[in-house]
Structures are given as C-alpha cells and as structure tokens.
C-alpha cells in the first residue's frame, strides 16, 4: 500500500477548513474572547526567533512521571496509565528535541489551581503537570493517572470529557503549539461543545487516543497512543493555530 505520507514536496498549504471560526456560539467562552477586528501582524524579535534551546539536561528524572513527581507521602491516586506517541512532520518524519509539556485534572476531575472550585477533592500527591523531550525518533512518553471529567459553565449541564492538555515548543517561544488529547470510548466526547467546534470529523478523531495494550505494563497500567503531526493532511488540530 502506498504510504499516505508520500513526500509531495517540502511545503503543504494549510487547510483552514479543519478549524472552527473564532466565534463558535456553542462554545460560550468564544463569544467573549473572539476578536471583532482584524488581527495585527507583529514582527517577532531576534530573541523570540532564536531561543530557547531545550536540552535533556533541563529535564528532571521524574518530570514525565506525574504519579510520583509531586508525591508527598504516597503515589497519586487513580487509574494508572501511560501516554506515548511520536512527534512527526507532514511526511511522517520524526521531529526530535521537541519540548512536550502536559497538564491535566486529577482522578476526580479537579485541577490544582486556585480558581478551580469543583467539589472533587485535591489529591495532595498529584501536581498534574510534567514535561519531556522527544527523542531522535520523535518518541515521547509519560506516566500519569487518567483524569476525571468535570462540569463547566457553558450550558446548564455541560461536562468536559477526560482529557490531557499538550504544549509543544520548537526552537523559540513563539514556536508553541497547544492541543488536547481525549480517550477512546469516552461517551462525553460526542457531547462536548468545545470539541464539536472543530468542523472536520476526521480532525476531531485525530484528537482521540486509542487504547494500546501492546504498550501497557501487565498488572500495572494501561497505555494510550497519541501521535502528534505538526503539518500536512493528517495534522493534529492545535487550539492556538485555529484562527
């Protein structure tokens, strides 16, 4: 079978039809945040274009282990999982040395944040964030607990599906992409106004990580695979590139 990532050139025109408009009324917050005037193009500075350069010496031994990296008295509570995948370009070539950050709610659906007032308890041994670098083959992985769903003030009874936030940095502060990963089989995915704001069904599907039993650790934790494609026909939808 011919590879769907066949190299057709060095550049692919971005398909803006994959992305929702800035004003998406079903997602109530967009009504307040969407711009009303044309955006201004500001020339980036040299420091923004050339730095920072991330190295493995900046990553701690537990930075990619959310079960232990904030532990005070015990490991974090919840369903233990591994999330892994590859960072790829539009021709399925690996992208190494990408700083991958991730943050999430705890097992009960609550973030460790002063503004989160959801009734679920805080886990004193779970900080909810970590980071790692993609290796020479573009691979990354981290261990965590599966986040819980939580209600949000959109419509009367809207709930966010379980999800993990991702941030990817290139070689400068302005080279940052942000997205969210969802879990295969979560019934709340079909109801989420935020996710349904992405008009292309295939683009939405690429945000859902399938179960990967081949990467699971027997008698310990399940695994989910989430490959991140930076451009091209199978690009991952990024929140801050959707406008």
Layout of helices and strands:
Blueprint: H1 29-33, H2 46-50, E1 80-88, E2 99-103, E3 129-133, E4 139-145, E5 150-152, E6 158-160, E7 163-169, E8 176-183, H3 193-196, H4 201-205, E9 208-209, E10 222-225, E11 228-229
Parallel strand pairs: 1-10, 1-11, 8-9
Antiparallel strand pairs: 1-4, 2-3, 2-7, 5-6, 7-8
Brief account:
This protein has 243 residues and is mainly β.
CATH architecture, please? Sandwich
Strand order of the largest sheet: 3-2-7-8-9
Spatial separation of the terminal alpha carbons: 35 Å
Q: What pattern of helices and strands is seen along the backbone?
A: HHEEEEEEEEHHEEE
Structural class, please?
A: mainly beta
Give a short account of the largest sheet.
5 strands, mixed
Helix content: under 10%
- CATH top level is Mainly Beta
Globular, elongated, flat, extended or rod-shaped: what is the shape? globular
Number of domains: 1
How big a fraction of the residues is strand?
15-25%
Q: What is the fourth-level CATH superfamily?
A: Aromatic compound dioxygenase
